[in-house]
Specification:
By secondary structure, the chain is an all-beta fold. The chain has one helix and 25 strands. The chain is 3% helix and 44% strand. Strands 16, 17, 18, 19, 20, 23, 24 and 25 form an eight-stranded antiparallel β-sheet that branches. It has a seven-stranded antiparallel β-sheet with strand order 2-3-6-11-8-9-13, with no helix packed on it. Strands 1-4-5-15-7-10 form a six-stranded antiparallel β-sheet, with no helix packed on it. The longest helix has 9 residues. The two termini are 15 Å apart. 41% of the residues are buried.
């Protein structure tokens, strides 16, 4: 989703504090510590050849990024996707990294590549030369022959942009180093110094090779399917998940089993990275229950009965179970 095309959860999120959130799929926006608050949006504003971008805008300023404060955009690459890089061995491969950036601020900033344990870092400094202007950043990364790099379905590598406290600053640039370093120590930009300061990115690409090539555009359907490995929903694509939203509500058959009503298996469009976290929504009320069709009766106590990477089933402890149908919405979250 490097071109920020897919946004399954909705196109904006407000009041982003210490709890991170996703607006465009796979890109986490978070203020881990400190007092900054931000809004994140999928924008129809991008450099030539692109249409969408991710914009993070300050709504509550934080002028103190001493010690360990951090406000970031983070992309987490699954370990299975970095197996071929051979990081942590003598055969580690060189990478090309590129992206577009825009801000109302000018000066020095950085992008960091960090392993899952946050103890190996590569920091590349770039300079935003002109305010409110898209510019492309590209560089190469020599493969890391040290450290531990997971190659399973957990986090293999992180990419990070943003504002980071002094604990995370470094003067060692374009080289692997020990520790969690995420920005330059050379007067880095504070993207939350004042309300309406912003950081905006798109065209993010990481590839094997010693050259950062032009962005490889893929179809929307390809990007959506790739994102659904980590998040899927029953709602229409353009509908943000929420209670009391009836658009494209599904019908589910529930059968009596003992004192419960249980659904049959519901199969995902795409196999998940791992067993996901399920959230249920009542399409016709502000609660997490299911609604019996053509009535105002809710089935109480909706919960998971079966859950796996390919399918799930739900149940209701309804007291007097009788085979029935119900309306329900759901989300399935297997994000890293």
């Amino acid at each position: 989703n490097g071109a920020m095309q897919v946004a399954q959860r909705g196109t904006s999120a407000t009041n982003i504090g210490t709890t991170g959130t996703f607006v465009v799929d796979r890109f986490l926006v978070s203020n881990v510590t400190g007092t900054a608050v931000q809004t994140a949006t999928q924008e129809n504003d991008a450099p030539a050849g692109f249409y969408n971008s991710l914009k993070v805008t300050c709504t509550t300023a934080d002028t103190d990024y001493s010690t360990n404060n951090q406000s970031k955009i983070e992309y987490r690459i699954e370990g299975t996707d970095i197996q071929r890089l051979n990081f942590g061995t003598a055969n580690a491969k060189t990478l090309g990294v590129s992206f577009y950036v825009k801000s109302n601020k000018t000066g020095n900033s950085a992008i960091a590549l960090v392993n899952s344990a946050n103890d190996r870092s590569f920091v590349h400094q770039f300079t935003i030369a002109s305010a409110n202007t898209w510019q492309r950043v590209s560089f190469t990364v020599a493969g890391d022959t040290s450290g531990t790099w997971l190659v399973d379905t957990n986090i293999g590598m992180r990419l990070r942009w943003g504002t980071f406290g002094t604990d995370f600053q470094t003067s060692t640039l374009d080289a692997w180093q020990a520790g969690q370093k995420m920005t330059t120590s050379n007067s880095p930009i504070n993207f939350n110094a004042a309300i309406n300061d912003f950081l905006q990115i798109t065209g993010v690409q990481l590839e094997v090779g010693s050259v950062a090539t032009d962005f490889e555009h893929r179809s929307f359907s390809q990007e959506l399917a790739s994102c659904q490995r980590y998040f899927e929903k029953s709602f229409a694509y353009g509908t943000a998940p929420a209670q009391n939203v009836s658009d494209q509500t599904g019908f589910y058959i529930m059968n009596a089993e003992g004192s419960d009503l249980r659904s049959s298996n519901i199969f995902y469009q795409v196999t998940k990275r791992a067993t996901p976290t399920m959230t249920f929504f009542n399409p016709f009320a502000a609660n997490a229950n299911a609604r019996i069709p053509f009535s105002s009766t809710d089935l109480a106590g909706i919960s998971i009965n079966t859950n796996g990477d390919s399918h799930f089933a739900f149940q209701s402890t309804d007291g007097t179970p009788t085979p029935t149908m119900c309306h329900l919405h759901w989300t399935s979250d297997a994000e890293l």
